[in-house]
């Protein structure tokens, strides 16, 4: 389109050129030259010619449809729903988690690594379930990571009893997933315990069926160096829901497990980028129209 910039000169030359013999006249030429004669009748002829050329240039610029392309940007991540279910039974106070040469109880290791994990889940909703004699939804799914970290920090051994209602905790998490489902979001439950299921009041079979049907993955983590962890049960729960079972005997091992889960549950839209394209043709078009209107008004 910009190659058409000299077109008025060509038309003017064709109009003024003496025609030897037979010639063809185009009404377009006549109309354009008539408009030019009308606009150039008064004083300030050079100024008017300059403005006409400027208007013609802006018209061609708008027809060429200029666009602005922004810098490369990442697509907004879709995010996931993740619930962390934490065992607060009395055995979680066992000090067999070693970190930097010091011994800590199991709950300390769970809280320390979970806080780091929550910080890494930038676009996810996170929820918390705690269980002992009973299971409770400690925090519903939320984007507010500060609330989750505050609740995590406040958890204490025995605050909901000293038993291990493991099955009840799974059922409560799955029910919360169902009641707060968002279309297209993938969901995962991370279950941390150092013992076998004791004290659950509800059969887990129905919950497992729902989890399988709705693609809710369950990652189970057995804690501690002792033999009290119900590995067979935890492995079965993970396998039924396409999750994984892990064993963590210290804080470093637990941190590596979270890193593995963080990788497995990475957002599907990660690493996709896009460029925003903005049309700019209306800017030169507006200037063209203003120039023509001004020239017509001044020519009266």
Describe the fold and architecture:
The chain has 2 domains: about 1-70 and about 280-300, no CATH class; about 80-265, Rossmann fold, CATH 3.40.50.410. About 45% of the residues lie in helices and about 20% in strands. The protein has helices at about 5-15, 25-40, 45-65, 105-120, 145-155, 165-180, 205-215, 230-240, 250-265, 280-300, and strands spanning about 65-70, 75, 80-85, 95-100, 100-105, 125-130, 135-140, 185-195, 215-225, 245-250, 275, 275-280. A 6-stranded mixed beta sheet has the order 7-6-3-8-9-10, with helices on both faces. A two-stranded antiparallel ribbon has the order 1-12. The protein is rod-shaped.
Topology:
Elements: H1 7-16, H2 27-39, H3 45-63, E1 67-69, E2 73-74, E3 80-87, E4 97-99, E5 102-104, H4 106-120, E6 125-131, E7 135-142, H5 145-154, H6 166-179, E8 186-193, H7 205-213, E9 216-223, H8 231-240, E10 245-248, H9 251-264, E11 273-274, E12 277-279, H10 282-299
Helix pairs in contact: 3-10, 4-5, 4-9, 6-7
Instruction: Give the neighbour order of strands across the main sheet.
Output: 7-6-3-8-9-10
Helical element count? Answer: 10
% residues in beta strands: 15-25%
The tally of domains stands at: 2
Radius of gyration: 36 Å
How many strand elements? 12
Largest sheet: 6 strands, mixed
């Amino acid at each position: 389109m910009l190659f058409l910039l000299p077109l008025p000169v060509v038309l003017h030359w064709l109009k003024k050129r003496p025609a030897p013999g037979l010639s063809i006249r185009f009404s377009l030429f006549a109309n354009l030259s008539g408009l030019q004669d009308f606009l150039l009748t008064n004083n300030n002829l050079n100024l008017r010619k300059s403005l006409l050329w400027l208007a013609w240039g802006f018209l061609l610029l708008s027809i060429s449809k200029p666009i602005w392309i922004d810098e490369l940007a990442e697509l907004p991540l879709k995010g996931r729903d993740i619930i962390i279910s934490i065992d607060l039974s009395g055995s979680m106070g066992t000090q067999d988690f070693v970190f930097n040469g010091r011994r800590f109880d199991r709950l300390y290791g769970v809280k320390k690594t979970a806080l780091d994990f929550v910080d890494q889940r930038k676009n996810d909703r996170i929820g918390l379930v705690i269980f002992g004699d009973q299971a409770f939804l400690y925090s519903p799914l939320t984007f507010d990571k500060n609330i989750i970290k505050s609740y995590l920090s406040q958890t204490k051994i025995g605050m909901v009893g000293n038993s291990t209602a493991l099955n009840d905790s799974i059922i409560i998490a799955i029910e919360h997933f169902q009641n707060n489902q968002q279309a297209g979001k993938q969901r995962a439950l991370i279950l941390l315990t150092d013992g076998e299921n004791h004290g659950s009041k509800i059969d887990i079979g129905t919950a497992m069926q729902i989890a399988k049907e709705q693609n809710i993955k369950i990652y189970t983590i057995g804690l501690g160096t002792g033999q009290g962890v119900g590995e067979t049960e935890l492995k079965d729960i993970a396998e039924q829901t396409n999750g994984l079972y892990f064993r963590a005997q210290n804080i470093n091992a637990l941190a590596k497990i979270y890193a593995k889960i963080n990788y497995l549950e990475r957002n599907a839209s990660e690493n996709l980028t896009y460029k925003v394209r903005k049309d700019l043709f209306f800017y030169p078009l507006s200037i063209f129209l203003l120039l023509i209107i001004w020239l017509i008004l001044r020519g009266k």
